[in-house]
Design a protein that fits this description.
The structure is a homotetramer.
Chain A (H helix, E strand, L loop, with lengths): L2 E6 L4 H10 L5 E7 L8 H4 L11 E2 L11 E4 L5 H6 L7 E4 L9 H8 L6 H6 L1 E2 L2 H9 L3 E3 L3 H16 L8 E6 L14 H4 L4 E2 L8 H13 L6 E6 L6 E8 L2 H11 L6 E3 L17 E7 L5 E8 L3 H15 L16
Parallel strand pairs in A: 1-2, 1-4, 2-3, 4-5, 5-7, 6-7, 8-10, 12-13
Antiparallel strand pairs in A: 8-11, 9-10, 11-14, 13-14
Helix pairs in contact in A: 1-11, 6-11, 7-9, 7-10
Function (chains A, B, C, D): Catalyzes the NADPH-dependent reduction of N-acetyl-5-glutamyl phosphate to yield N-acetyl-L-glutamate 5-semialdehyde.
Protein name (chains A, B, C, D): N-acetyl-gamma-glutamyl-phosphate reductase
Organism (chains A, B, C, D): Celeribacter ethanolicus
Chain lengths: 342, 342, 342, 342
């Protein structure tokens, strides 16, 4: 017996990544793939690397019989997602990969996404999908809101430090080096090969990036007070991966201990020996997260570096990890594939 | 029950790729990893992307108890490989990834590799490891010689055409675009990032590349006469993959039919609809091969394009496919992972 | 005294490359830059790497006073170019970088570009801009049609061989490895960084590429009979450059002699010593062309490899070289900058 | 009349970059190129992109007649440089590109470079080569010590802020994204294409990078007290360029004013309008530096971003700028070439 899976919005990168991961998942079977503008096309026309698979053709969402679906992954754009999910049968389990249900407070949603939320009732019900920290709620959730990929990376390295009280909450700086697939398959000039090769630049600098909404919500909740961090993502010439560098004020040994302790039994999160730093390519294509802690020459200053693959641990891998829990499966099922190196 | 696997020469790229693929293979277990100069080191020190795995430390070959090993992959450099394999117990099944046992004729070996073969007796016994064409011999073989990665790509697109007699045997041109990992992890100036970015150049041009020994041997055997092709590999700024363009003289429809017919039931080789061409990234990280056939505007001229991942279908994936057969397992076991895209 | 230059269609890559090269040209001064959809914007908004320059703002073509312009570079899209150029004052010298005036025969134009030519009269007058071969006509021309970048590369390596009669005219195969900037700054999915990294694929395979119109016209003219070559361009993950591999049938020594002889006194075209092959990056950013000749192991077969930067020698550099001649300047003026390596 | 130039250590990337820039310099002529291990070779054998140039062959340093040399660029490795320079005729003007003469204090040199300085007397005499800040001393200097490329970038964005007193000196964090050519043409595993593609990682993290010696020396001197910054360089998959992100505590408007004011008349340093950020590729191949200032959402926090090409403004371009001053030439001579984009 396998669980029947639908992927809504399968024609984007996170959709393709879900297909890749589910292909070798022993307990999931894809029964429906939607792609509104591409309805009627075979998935192999959109993604020829899936040519060998026996997949359903892309269809419209309204053509899916949700009575036969155990769980739906929703990989639709922001705003579209809430409109679609509120029309789904209330019994369908959903893992949403958009930003629509990440923020608890409708006011915060409107602040960061520029318009009112249209499904406030189910927004309340959604569980934040950072698996390692919401495991129990996710197990019994109907709707899980996948995190932002930058937001996941930042939280993996900072949550245990805030929880343990080992860093100054008013002096947290997070500088990210991010690969281009986080922006999806969209046609934008700065995503062209000729523009990005030998290039690097910051964007949404100074507190404008929407994932700050997640950081504010989560960090403040852990700390029991308002926490505001500085966060700058930088686009680099790479396809997959996020390397997050956090500059914090706190003793390096306490920082390392807090992380090692928090993740001691986690299958996907690996804290390196003290003083070692991770490399982005070491987790590429996998659901792993590597974290390193290095002491600065200035006493009391510490650098914490974490890395994940944005399409796997940062979105589609995380989504399957959550779906495993929601379906009562082993959390790591189908997710232990090894990073692709080189 | 699982089969006990040793990897000799595990510190190179093909060794790391074997570890990646075996990690999710349901019937193989790695019991020994050798790396002479790195003996004593943990595999995770050499390849931190394997950090989460529970692997034996690197050891010297002489420290492996081959009585407990069901099959050894030999990923050693050319020449070293023959010296090592001739000292292994004659009952140990071996898949060799080097060039040492690919050529039947010791004279040809000496011609292409510049020194006499030192294990001529076992050279006789070795089976050429192009699975799709030597399946039966491989099943009962003790020693299988993995093919060259360029040689595999060229043969996938040309063997059925030579066998079917649909092309002119004296007018075959093979132009390859190859990624850099085919050269291994060796420290050479032209493999540096700064040298290869925005670069492309042919090498071993004009009939000097050693994989021609394999082409000559195999194509002549199929044709029943001497066949000599033109073959030029070109290094391009990419890490994994080979895109092979063959210019042949023969009717495109007959060419396409010969290929489609030959690979109709092959799980890993996919012939595209007539007129379509494959892209290198569509097979990256996988054991698949995509082949396309396009008719030229000049009557009687046809372009055949094939692509594989040099580290997977071109070496370590092929090796596991062969090992599956040698161990009586399903040929595709552990090899159906989906290409990583993007 | 300097010559007053207008660039029509300055917002594309060839426009930007013209600005880059003219910036250090001692006898040219940019007086007008057009960019219809971007009229009113500063060039530095479109191309911030030009920030330090004192350039006119982008304007509409109709706002340029051509009485004050000595020479106009026309870097507009195909079809637009002919519509614009036929309205320019007949005294304005023009170097067109589009495909509109490359083909002598209106029938051929319609065949390759899919619609009738709308400026047949001035099409007759245009001189084909492959400087090394049309030098005298260019000196006195009013309108010069810049060549296709692929067409330029192929002609540099093949014209002298056809002229010298040293190769079989019915057995010419041209395989190109081309960087992405040849496709311009257009928003197309296959030009995205995430799609092209670790990728390579042929396009317009089998005789469909429009530059074949130029090859057919020029090679047939030289040979005095119809010549049809096979031509396949392959996109590779690089930004600038074309590496052209020609497979020809003829004695390598005669081929090398024909090329060395043809280019002996050419400032930009360098024929390497016999047996050496060029690398794409060795000409990047410059107006140089490197050509190598290698003998195949099959007697009578020869590989000729040539490389240029598609944006420089393949379009904007060539355009300035032609403009120098049209203005009575030294042909190399402003074009001797050294390739950028690494 | 031109000045006669020798380049000692011409076979590295900075040597090649000096040749590239001097090639179009109207007042410099290369008369000698040394390369000890490659003595006797032509420069075009080491760097085929220089094939078209008429350059002296590589020689040994002792074979150079310094009586005929007006100025020597010394692009030798650290430690070698001091040994060579102390043997040069005391009348020869020298621009050193190594680290050997950057630090005033021999104790600091030993601390960062691990052994005592062997030319302490001429160390005293050397002028620090950050042109915009040592212009007058450089004009009359005999020996100028080129800065580290990371050190230059960091100083361009931070010096005016420290001088103007607009930021907290104890809260300066500098996160660099650096391209690979800064490491030179050395054969190291992490510099291989296959290792760096899709990768990113910090190195010399936590205060271990040698360029901190320069920051400490210069910033403390400006401030009149000890200043210690946090500095982490991150290698990214790119060939040329440094993008430096400084996190400072001070009013953004005051920060922007201090920078705009400091560089108002500088030909190579461009401060962007308030709120805009630079991109690394916008200065590639040129001697320009772009600087942007963005206000953070947290009051009193500011992000300053600067970018240069490490081989040009960060080393060889800076060296020529300094040589121009030392020879009484216009400071910008030969350095106004436009960045290469795309």
């Amino acid at each position: 017996m396998t669980y029947k899976i639908a992927i809504l919005g399968a024609s984007g990168y996170t959709g393709a990544e879900l297909v890749r991961l589910i292909a070798t998942h022993p307990m999931m079977e894809i029964v429906a793939l939607s792609g509104d503008r591409k309805a009627g096309m075979e998935m192999a026309e959109v993604y020829p690397h899936l040519r060998h698979m026996d997949l359903p053709a892309l269809c419209k969402i309204e053509d899916i019989d949700f009575a036969t679906v155990d769980l739906a992954f929703c990989a639709l754009p922001h705003a579209t997602s809430q409109a679609v999910i509120k029309e789904l049968p209330p019994t369908t389990k959903v893992v949403d990969l958009s930003a629509d249900f990440r923020l608890r407070d409708p006011g915060e949603y409107e602040k960061w996404y520029g318009k009112p939320h249209s499904a406030v009732e189910i927004q309340k019900e959604a569980v934040y999908g950072l698996t390692e920290f919401y495991r129990d709620e996710i197990k019994s959730a109907r709707l899980v809101a996948g995190t932002g990929c930058n937001a996941a990376t930042g939280q993996f390295i900072l949550r245990p430090l805030i929880a343990a009280g080992v860093i100054d909450l008013d002096q947290i700086i997070l500088d990210l080096k991010v690969a281009v697939s986080g922006a999806g398959r969209s046609l934008k000039e700065h995503l062209l090969y000729g523009e990005l090769e030998d290039n690097a630049f910051g964007y949404s600098i100074g507190g404008k990036h929407r994932h700050l909404g997640e950081f504010d919500q989560e960090f403040s909740k852990i700390a029991g007070r308002d926490v505001r961090i500085q966060f700058t993502p930088n686009l680099i010439p790479a396809t997959r991966g996020i390397l997050a560098t956090a500059y914090v004020q706190g003793e390096a040994s306490a920082v390392h201990y807090a992380l090692a302790d928090a993740y001691m039994n986690e299958p996907f999160i690996h804290v390196l020996p003290f003083g070692q730093a991770p490399a982005m390519k070491h987790v590429r294509g996998s659901n792993f997260c590597h974290i390193g802690v290095v002491e600065d020459r200035i006493p009391g200053r510490t650098i914490v570096i974490g890395t994940i693959d944005n399409l796997t641990k940062g979105s589609s891998g995380q989504a399957i990890q959550n779906a495993n829990l929601m379906l009562g499966l082993d959390e790591t099922m189908g997710l232990m594939n090894v990073p692709m190196y080189p």
